[in-house]
Amino acid sequence: MTLTPSQIFDQAAVNIRAAGFGYSAIFTPAVGDPVPDIMVDLSTGVDYQPGSIEAQVWGSEKTLEYLLSDIGREVNRDEFFTIDETAYTVQGIQENDGRFVKAVVT
């Protein structure tokens, strides 16, 4: 059986999740029950000054990336993920490629 590129990427996403890369988190939606055991990748990077001709660092930015199929949707602002005992509140969505979603968190 020949897999399409899309099927290959879908399987790779599932394999990454199954391998346990990242952190195990609990997702708490605004409405409904918390969702345990969501594998996430937590990163700290830089946020560039908006509207500037030259790219200048404006501050640091934390992002949290998760497998879209684990939650079934993009998370909303003010929902949160808990890793160990630290809560990360969603501020917005940075990327969604249909497999992984990257959210800006504080």
Summarize the structure.
The chain has 106 residues and is of the alpha+beta class. The protein has helices at residues 5-19, 68-71; strands spanning 23-28, 35-48, 57-67, 80-83, 86-96, 100-105.
Give the topology, please.
Elements: H1 5-19, E1 23-28, E2 35-48, E3 57-67, H2 68-71, E4 80-83, E5 86-96, E6 100-105
Antiparallel strand pairs: 1-2, 1-4, 2-3, 3-6, 4-5, 5-6
Architecture overview:
This protein is of the alpha+beta class. It has a single domain (5-105), classed as Beta Barrel (Thrombin, subunit H). 18% of the residues lie in helices and 49% in strands. Strands 1-2-3-6-5-4 form a 6-stranded antiparallel barrel. The radius of gyration is 15 Å and the shape is globular.
What number is the mean pLDDT?
87
Give the percentage of residues in beta strands. Answer: over 45%
Per CATH, the class reads Mainly Beta
Q: What's the multimeric state? A: single chain
Separation of the first and last Cα atoms: 44 Å
- Give the structural class: alpha+beta
How many DSSP helices? 2
Give the helix level as a range of percent.
10-25%
Using the alpha-carbon principal axes, give the shape.
Answer: globular
Low-confidence stretches: none
